[in-house]
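dumping this here before i forget
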Amino acid sequence: MESKPLVSILIPAYNRPHYLRLALESAIHQTYPNIEIIICDDSTDMGVWVMMQPYLAQYPHIKYVKNDTVLFVKNWNKCYELSSGEYVNYLMDDDLFHPEKIERMMACYLEKPDVALVTSYRQLIDGSGNERSAVYATRRLYNETTVLNGIDFGNDILSDGHNVIGEPTTVLFRKKDLKEPFGILSGRQFTTLNDLATWLSLLVRGNAVYLPEPLSYFRIHFGQNQSTLGVSSFADWSELTIAAREAGFLQDSDRYKAALELQLNRLAEDKMLPSFSEYVPKINEQQKKIEAIISDL
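structure:
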């Protein structure tokens, strides 16, 4: 019997052994038969290391590395570099996989070789694992399995200004299709939108498949790492729009202009928030940059 392609599940860990245990269990119990699990531990204490020891003794397909220094975003790249799989799926250490996630998504690749990424509906959960109602960005896009043209899908996302593809946990992709490190589009590293930057990089190269089943669970809770990134990365959406144009999206000037104007409006709203007060001069600079681009169209 021919073996199925190896899938690498990559878990960047940081100071959350309780949630990591749940995430790891959801990876271990995948129905897909050929996986490896890579965990790179960026923690500032030994809690994750202690939690991992029984798993390392029991499961030889788990690789664990404790970083000597905190790598932040580079920890994602370290996981990727250590992986051996033909296909890759990140799993955030506070999220969960449905048991059939990898199996269902790999079936799409085996049936449709022109696919560049596979995503699905993702179920929001709270810190205790209780299901939460969908928000606009996490709504179910289709009620049946749907193949989407990569460029058209990317254009729609940029025009709407929401990451409807999902967080890193949501997407399975083929390793050879990722030409730049995770989070980079058109040579630019993104922080709060590192996932969407990567999805756009993949969509340039092929179609997407959307599955309507909730194959991943995105946890919303206090203490998430991204909660402190949002303020300092206010410009990510506008910069991503610019980088996406360079990558091959929004080639219609009117649509590009509309996408930039959407981000101008967001920046104007940001300036009104007390939490953004110290960033007003930088927001003003970003607005001027966008206005200059629009005037040249």
